[in-house]
Amino acid sequence: MHTPIILDCDPGTDDALAIFLALASPELDVLAITVAGGNVGLEHTLPNALALTALAGSDVPVYGGADHPLLGAFVSETRVHGEDGLGGVVLPPGGKAQPEHAVDAIRRILRTSPEPVTLVGIGPATNLGLALTTEPALAANVREIVLMTGAWGEGNMTPAAEFNAISDPEALAIVLACGRPVVLATLETTAQALCTPAILAGWRALGAGQCLKAACDIQGTVPLNRRLAHAGAALHDPCAIAWIVDPCLFTTRDVSVVMDLGPGPSRGRTVIDRWGRTGAPANAKILETLDATGFFALLGERFSRLP
Ligand code: BDR
Ligand code: CA
Predict the structure, then answer these.
(1) Atom of ligand 1 at shortest distance to CA of 167?
(2) What is the pTM of this model?
(3) Is the CB of 219 under 6 A from ligand 1?
(4) For residue range 102-144, what is the model confidence (pLDDT) as tens digits?
(5) What pLDDT, on a 0 to 100 scale, did the predictor assign at position 1?
(6) Does the CB atom of residue 270 touch ligand 1 within 6 A?
(7) What is the CATH number of the domain that holds 97?
(8) Distance CA 157, CA 268 (A)
């Protein structure tokens, strides 16, 4: 069975590998790639998405979207992703973006798709939040929303907040409240997707394809996580795609999630109630454990299928 998805992203080193995984996976039908500013500005993330899809030999339509959050100022993350978003790895330029705005494209696809569509968000939730808040009835044609965002413990941008969550907390709150099933790959999930130099070396040995090489080159630029004892770099965004391709790689837990939208130091925190302490009904599923061996084997195998 093919799962139709819209992939909303901000490439971004780990977004790049998530895009390759999605395009290489026959379980998925990627209807559109929608792009926001996030890790770096939209002036980089959009050309990056176009270059990555072209390198993969895909003609999936790519749409430019929001270049700043619903509220507040845009903040990038060049320490992890480099000034250009791909760690300085230069790819041949891709084609042109579609003229339609990403938010309009998301709404049009949801309005016209003959079957429910899975929304995958691996960047700030602005494009998804705008689409769902301007035409809420379209949520009825959303099968599932899979997000790499948030943390049940500490954040990676502030002590309280993960990067995608704090980049547009209001948009994320809209998405969480839309009434459709939400699945979260949090920082605790992605810490288990620890991409070590040995894993990269193993991938490189799989072949000489341009996408496999680009994936390894791009991931090789990511600083090893101080938070994870410099053992490797957490490969965040591919976890969201892997959930749809092979959910058996994960164990899950149903939880309630509330966004902290306050102005204080906890702004952007995803307050996740794993133990039912609040009595609030579950509004999301978190991916709690990952079979890392299976995950990295899946990625290597899929990257090897691409040109
Ligand atoms: C998330 O933030 C970005 O830097 C990554 O691309 C990922 O989507 C991890 O916190
Ligand atoms: Ca991302």
Answers:
(1) 2
(2) 0.97
(3) no
(4) 999 999 999 999 999 999 999 999 999 999 999 999 999 999 9
(5) 67
(6) no
(7) 3.90.245.10
(8) 10
Domain with 251 in it: 3-305
Annotation says 236 is catalytic: yes
Q: Is the CB of 168 under 6 A from ligand 1?
A: no
Across the range 246-267, mean pLDDT stands at 98
Three-state DSSP string of the chain: CCEEEEEEECCCHHHHHHHHHHHHCCCEEEEEEEECCCCCCHHHHHHHHHHHHHHCCCCCCEEECCCCCCCCCCCCCHHHHCCCCCCCCCCCCCCCCECCCHHHHHHHHHHHCCCCEEEEECCCCHHHHHHHHHCHHHHHHEEEEEEECCCCCCCCCCCCCCHHHHHCHHHHHHHHCCCCCEEEECHHHHCCCEECHHHHHHHHCCCCCHHHHHHHHHHHCCCCCHHHCCCCEECCCHHHHHHHHCHHHEEEEEEEEEECCCCCCCCCCEEEECCCCCCCCCCEEEEEEECHHHHHHHHHHHHHHCC
User: For the chain, how many structural domains are there in total?
Assistant: 1
To test ligand 1's pocket by mutation, which of 7, 48, 75, 77 has the most ligand atoms within 8 angstroms of CB?
Answer: 77
179-221 pLDDT, tens digit per residue, is: 999 999 999 999 999 999 999 999 999 999 999 999 999 999 9
Query: pLDDT grade, residue 17 (50/70/90)?
Result: very high
Best substitution site from 15, 164, 167, 186 to test ligand 1's pocket, by max atoms within 8 Å of Cβ? 164
